[in-house]
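Sample entry (148 residues):
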Amino acid sequence: MRVLVVEDDVRLARQIASALTEAGHDPIIVHDGEHALDKTTETPFDLIVLDIILPGIDGFGVLQNLRSQHVASRVLMLTARGEVKDRVTGLQLGADDYLPKPFAMRELVARVNALGRRYPEEPGLNLRVGDLTLDLAAHDVHRGAKQI
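Predicted structure, serialized as tokens:
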């Protein structure tokens, strides 16, 4: 799966990317919310590993923006803020799963794999050329995150 890792801790982001690569995924790293939104406009991702505490736009803001633009990527929230209200907020905003820090890298990889199994991409329903996506099932066209 193509995975966007959004984590401001450079060392942790590299560790996550390394573990995902070893598990057969294709991770790309960004370190703040603004770059995450830019990347998701340029490239479709199967899954986004998203920290909440980020410089600039926080993870909740990124998630809210993605869902308002109908970005269908699965989202696994990562954060040191493990309180129930934070988990509920993330899930209500459209996150698919939530993993509080600190965590075992094996568990993160297992959750990523589980999300991949839970929501397999339906082959042949989306055609992509660059940032242009034609959704044959919904009969709509997007350039990046913008519907045409």
